[in-house]
Amino acid sequence: MKRTTTLLCAAALVMISGYHLKAQEKETIKKNGLTLHFTSQDPTFDPALKKKMIETFFKVYPQLSKEYNKKTDKEVYFEIDTAYDGVAATGGGKVTYSSAYFKKFPGDVDVVTHEVMHIVQNYGRSKGPGWLTEGIADYVRYKFGVDNPGAGWALPEFKSTHSYKNSYRITARFLAWLENHGNKGIVQKIDSSLRDHTYTNEIWEKETGKSLDDQWKAYSENPAL
Hints:
Blueprint: H1 2-23, E1 25-31, E2 34-40, H2 47-68, E3 75-81, E4 88-91, E5 94-98, H3 99-104, H4 111-121, H5 130-144, H6 168-180, H7 186-195, H8 202-208, H9 212-221
Parallel strand pairs: 2-3, 3-5
Antiparallel strand pairs: 1-2, 4-5
């Protein structure tokens, strides 16, 4: 009986070990001077979605580097996390994605576009506001996204209750409006100032001829993109 129990325990340990190795599946992909390390804790994660995420990275990341920060990291880490209960989080060249989120929204591959922009931004201890950081990342998703329609993702129509401080898509739409109304390249300039820690509110008037509040007022009076 004791021998049988020992054998069963050993078999169970082998099975658990095998499952753990499978759950911690790792792959490293190198292409055009970039390296992506892809780790998944979820053995049921859709291989087709993984493929799309990898393809999105190698398509979008070079574009973002060229447009905003040529010195951005050349080695990036993706991790599919079964315990993370948000959508995604980025820090230190690594993006953590929620496996639960992607099971609910498998078409939202441009979460990758938004998150890798945070790597490109690399603002560190910038004095810039958080709403602007997220607004720029969503503006980039709007401009460079590979399949926003497939995720049902779009910039929202303007509402009088909106503020440029609302962040994400609301701020992104304002940035798109600025780009389309005589301020082409303003996102690049603001992004650069945040990265080199020279950002102040005065940059808006310097670069656009109007204060941030005055630009928002002009936007609210004629918000068509």
